[in-house]
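Suppose you are handed a protein chain with no further information: no name, no annotation, nothing but its sequence. What can you learn? This example shows the usual starting point.
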Amino acid sequence: MRALSVFLIAALQVLAITLPQPRHLSIPLTKRSTLRTADGHGSVDPTSIMAHISSTVVKLQRGAAAFERNTGAVLFSESSSLTKRVAASGSDPLADDSNERWYGHIEVGTPPYTFTIDCDTGSTDFFLPGPSCGDSCSGHDIYNPNSSSSAEPLGKTFMVEYGDGSMATGDLYTDTVLLAGCNANAQTLGVASFYSYGFSSENFGADGLMGMAFESISAYGANSVFQTLVSQGAVPEPVFAFKLASSGSELYVGGVNSALYRDPFTYTPVTQQGYWQVTGDAIAINGKEIVNEFSAIIDTGTTLILGDTTYVSQLYAVINATEVGGGVYSLPCDAMPNVTITLGGKSFAISAETFNFGTYGSSGNTCLGGIAGGDGLGDVWVLGDVFMRNVYTAFDVGNSRVGFADLA
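A reasonable first move is to predict its three-dimensional structure. Written in structure tokens, the prediction is:
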């Protein structure tokens, strides 16, 4: 009897070892910026920033159009002009703007091939350059569905188009996708047959783009890669998290990395499952609250903090900053203000290092602020890299909420 018990215990131990173990793994992220001038001094190019602002507004407009097309509902309030129609129906809500982008790696196909992807919580769809892309995809690694035994054509085309005329077009497929070792079967992806100049390797260091928002803003009418993982039970928790910083940046899949933040999290519910959109409490500068109760989109695909030009001008008026044009403001480099954004009842400070977007002009004494204005945003703010570099951010698909914690 004792021998049988020992045998059963040993068998259970072997079974526990051989059974698939739940995993929640991280993907290291690297950043590439083309918002700097080519003068060798690393100063900021205001023209590129203005293009970034315009493209982000167009990105939100396209997402709103896709949301209305997919759900029949309106995504944004009437206080903004983001619900206005855009010309290209079926366009994907992405930004092509010489941006600061966060790159990771993903594996696609059977056998799997590794590609570099731009991780974007401000869009949903996933695309890669395909074998018929030709010179327009030169410098990128090419995904060939004919080389994958798990690839299936959907018999549909796609087009992603941007405010500056940049675009990618091609065909839709499904294939196996591995994100941090977690397997998404039959994931819908676009296989591009054309990349415009905005997606050339000179301007876009990743091979493709992976959106991480909700299905309702998908131009494909499909789940994001992560939502597919959740629906197939491929991750231990329906949560992914970002640390964006000068070093140690990562995307964590299937939970949060407890080594990177200090408890507790402050959670805010998603108000509309399109973007990762929440309600913010206040934005203050040097202790003076300028904005109260606003809508905030948490977006890794946006570099700055963006607000409507009216509110942004009120913020900068407190510190007598100078508008250099297009909603971009300058101030002395040694006079960065104390900016706080309150979410879920907790105020998060924007460090001087992250608020200071870089030098402007030849003196080296003037810098550009990390908050910028865009026309027609109304009560919608976009909290991009300038905000997210100050917090650890958890995107909770299962509970439809976003959590913020102080960095460790």
